[in-house]
Amino acid sequence: MADKDGLKVAKDYHVGEAFANQGDFQVKGANGLDWGMKHRLSKIFDPKTGKTVMFAFDHGYFMGSTAGLERLDLTVPKLMPYVDVLMCTRGALRTCIPASNRCGVALRTSSGSSMLDDDLSHEVVAVDIEDAIRLNVDCMAVQTFIGADGQLESLDNLSQVINAGMQYGIPTLGVVAVGKNMERTDKYFKLATRIVAEMGAQIVKTYNCEHFDEIVAACPVPIVVAGGKKLPEDEALTLAYDVIRQGAAGVDMGRNIFQSEHPVEMAQAVRKVVHEGFTDKEAYQFYQELIH
Fold first, then answer.
1. Residue numbers annotated as active site
2. pTM (predicted TM-score)
């Protein structure tokens, strides 16, 4: 195995230089994948822009009923015309989401302790590949705790899901989790996103941080940025704008959409940033015009 002693600090990320193995497919790192995998990735990343607006509402798998998501059956269908991907649990998908919708589906496949537990890092694979196939999902999401007590377990979970997905042409979304003892630094995210990608995940979800453009450059698969905690609408749009201009392939807005006073209008504004090149100020002005 490689000796970790004496390694040089990475520094030459060639930020701004195009990914070398892009080919003619819009998704970074997917040029060598087979047709079925690419077809599903095209449900996630728009073929015209190569980007995505995900809408996460899988919070109930450890938080139970969440403010803004008390009635999934009423909240989510109103937002579906304005997002590309629904990130959810199989229970929510089957009970609350009309099967006639055209959105991609990122299925939460890992599960663990509830928010009542002080340590959320110990998860298991809770959904098998057969059920993912029955649901015709476009990717399977696995929480990954790098540097936490549950690191080995979560990497094992990630490997299991990636291996099963490769058999049936279903991509895996590795979700970089940030526990209470982990710092949101570029050093940490460079480590975590690269590990998840090199394990074989076709998509990585992570957070914004300093030197985010270096993290994007060093990761050989697309990075989707989590919105995180609820921010004022103008700040959430600035977050989206900052990561997109630094090379993110999309954003996954949950609370910054469903906890907004105007969630439908907020989803439309986020879409303007991701797919239409709006600046944060332009998108916020658009949002203000919609609500007045």
1. 205
2. 0.93
| Structural domain containing residue 262 | 35-60+67-111+118-291
Tokens read off for 71 = 């009635």
Does residue 277 lie in a domain region? Answer: yes
261: burial class by Cβ within 10 Å (0-12, 13-18, 19+)?
A: exposed
Q: Give the pLDDT confidence score for residue 112 in this predicted structure.
A: 74
**Looking at the domain assignment, is residue 140 inside a domain?**
yes
The answer to whether the CB of 238 falls within 8 A of the CB of 265 is: no
Is residue 23 included in any domain, yes or no? no
Which CATH number belongs to the domain containing residue 190 in this structure? 3.20.20.70
Q: CA 6, CA 116: separation in Å to the nearest integer?
A: 42
| The predicted structure's pLDDT at residue 161 | 98
What are the phi and psi torsion angles at 140 (to 5°)? -115, 130
Q: CA-to-CA distance for 247 and 131, rounded, in angstroms?
A: 33
Using N-to-C axis directions, what is the helix angle for 280-291 and 263-276, rounded to 10°?
A: 150
Handedness of CA 220, 224, 229, 232 (dihedral sign): positive
What pLDDT does 146 receive? 87
Burial of residue 140, with CB atoms counted within 10 A of its CB: 0-12 exposed, 13-18 middle, 19 or more buried: buried
What pLDDT does residue 181 have? 61
Tokens standing for 280? Answer: 């944060």
φ/ψ of 228, rounded to 5, equals 75, -145
The segments of the chain whose pLDDT lies below 70 read: 1-10, 62-63, 113-120, 179-182
How many domains, the chain? 1
Contact at 8 Å (CB) between 184 and 151?
no
Predicted local confidence at residue 250, as pLDDT: 98
The tens digit of pLDDT for each residue in 42-75 reads 999 999 999 999 999 987 776 677 888 899 999 9
